[in-house]
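Our preliminary data section would be incomplete without showing what the modeling component actually yields. Below, a chain of 157 amino acids is followed by its predicted structure, encoded as tokens that our downstream tools consume directly.
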Amino acid sequence: MDYETLKKLNNFIVKAKAATYVGGGARGAACRPGSHDLEFADGDWSYLDSYFGGRDFIGEEVVYFHETPLWAMNYYGRILRADLITPAQAGEVIKASLSELYTESRFLGGFEYQHREFKYVDTNEGDATSFRGREFISREGELAYELVYHGGLILED
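Predicted structure:
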């Protein structure tokens, strides 16, 4: 994949992520029984985030170019300490933190953000072509929530 296409992909991923979960985007019809689906499209690019669960959840994001899957990310998140954070608080911290990250026009590269009494940290390695990472939220130095993720390009032969 050439540099310009990779740059367009990165920009679209940031735009789609900001417009869906973080931006409170409209939910689409469930593509699998029991899934929660968020969709976004812009020209030849489209995005689907499909996940299961709530307090603890698992999902996959896919970016399509001309209706062909090009990029994907899998993730699993969970509350580790219900005495330190509620699902609603975790969602609030994640949305506030990622909103700040996306203003930097990126979704990878590591990030830390303090939101009230919660500290959000994202660590990862790689780039949009192949990556893995972990985000977590702590309160008073105690780990309360974590999410692990990995993904990259999907290339046909």
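The mean pLDDT is 96. The beta strands are 27-28, 36-42, 45-53, 57-65, 68-79, 111-115, 118-127, 130-139, 142-153. Preliminary results of this kind motivate Aim 1 of the renewal.
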